[in-house]
Structures are given as C-alpha cells and as structure tokens.
Amino acid sequence: MAETNENLPAQRSVWGDMDPFRDFFRSPFGARNLLGDVSQRSWAPAMDIRESKDSYAVTVELAGASKDDVSVECHDNVLTVKGEKRDEREEKDEHRHFVERTYGSFTRSFRLPADASDEIQANFKDGVLTIEVAKHEEKKPKVVAIDG
C-alpha cells in the first residue's frame, strides 16, 4: 500500500489555471434587447484546447470571419488570437425582427504551459482556426558526480 502525505499539494492539470476563467470565456456575446439585437461590442469566439503527447492544439470557431481579419501572436509564452468579424448586411428599407449572430472585434489570450515550445503553426479552413503548439522534449535532471 502506498503512503500518502497530506502536506503535499494535489496534482493539477496543466490547464488547471484556466478553470477560474471558464465562466468568463463562456459569457454572453453582448447585450440583447427583447428583439434579439446584439450590440457591436467585443465578443469571445468558442474555443477548444486539446493536449497530445507531442503538442497542444487550440481550435477556435470563427464562422463568418475572414482569414485576413484574424491574427495569432505568441509573446512571453502567452498565446493571443485576435481579429474582427464584420457585419456585411445592408440596412436599406428592411426591418429586422430577430438578430442573433455576433459581430465585432475579439481577443482571446492565455498562458501556455511551461513545456510549450516556440514551434507554432496555424491553419484557417471553413471558418475554423486550428493552432498547433509543439511541446519541448522533457528535460531530464543532470546527475553530477561528486569528487573525493
């Protein structure tokens, strides 16, 4: 039977720091009135984060956005996806009864785990942005010989 030590911290997932922000990321995409109009304020696209043995993958839903209106940056191990989804509708003599789609600028940022490398690739296809972040090889402790 293995011994346990109650003084040791519990193991946490590398994404555990995101858990407090889960509700923030899933917040409504702007103020709506009774007819469903959405304001032109910032919104947060839905995203998934997966981990494999060799990499992390971030998938961002950007239906209706253009590849040219999206950017991916990584600075000091913080990955940032930002851009704009433009409203292309014309408002001639029409009366909209219900508008639920969101438009406007967005920014999503999060700190990558310590084993994430600078090797990052991004692909935009059919309104879905996929970002692959390779992992560093695990560094093994150096054994130092003691003379004497």
Strand residues, percent: 35-45%
CATH C-level class of the domain at 16-27 and 36-87 and 101-135 is Mainly Beta
| Mean pLDDT across all amino acids | 77
Order of helices and strands: HEEEEEEE
The unreliable regions are 19-40
In spatial order, strands of the major sheet run 1-2-7-6
How many β-strand stretches?
7
Any guess at the CATH architecture of the domain at 16-27 and 36-87 and 101-135?
Sandwich
Helix proportion: under 10%
Instruction: Supply the number of helical segments.
Output: 1
Shape, principal axes of CA atoms? rod-shaped
How far the N terminus sits from the C terminus, by CA atoms, comes to 39 Å
* Biggest beta-sheet profile: 4 strands, antiparallel
Based on helices, strands and strand pairing, what is the structural class?
A: mainly beta
Rg value:
22 Å
CATH topology of the domain at 16-27 and 36-87 and 101-135: Immunoglobulin-like
Overall description:
By secondary structure, the chain is mainly beta. It has a domain at 16-27 and 36-87 and 101-135: Immunoglobulin-like, CATH 2.60.40.790. Helix content is 3%, strand content 35%. The chain has 1 helix and 7 strands. The chain has one helix at 22-25, and strands at residues 47-51, 55-61, 70-75, 78-85, 104-111, 116-125, 128-135. The strands form 2 sheets. It has a 4-stranded antiparallel beta sheet, with no helix packed on it. Strand 3 and strand 4 form a beta hairpin.
Quick structural overview:
With 148 residues, the protein is mainly β. It has one helix at residues 22-25, and strands spanning 47-51, 55-61, 70-75, 78-85, 104-111, 116-125, 128-135.
